[in-house]
Amino acid sequence: MKYNEILDTLCREFEKDTFFYKLRQMDFDENLAKKLDVFINNIDLSEFCKEKRINIVKNIWMMPVYYYIYKERCITNGALEGTYDGYARRFFNRVQEIIESV
Prior knowledge:
Elements: H1 3-12, H2 19-24, H3 30-41, H4 50-60, H5 63-69, H6 71-76, H7 81-101
Helix pairs in contact: 1-4, 3-7, 5-7
């Protein structure tokens, strides 16, 4: 995946009809969670210089926090807690791996 593609995708994650946008609307969309999982798992920082790796980390390090901030509202609105927690945990672990790789 190209550097600009990664940054563009990360920035668009808060636009209308995206995963984090829907979370803010108290709507956990499992299909969008799966799509985000695939995206985050395909980020490979090894092909980028340190400056670009750090810039990518700057764009993802807070995302797991948003997962947890909106949890209660999504659960109240009908999301299954176990499913939500599973995606959140996998996302957190992958972001942690990315951060540690820098």
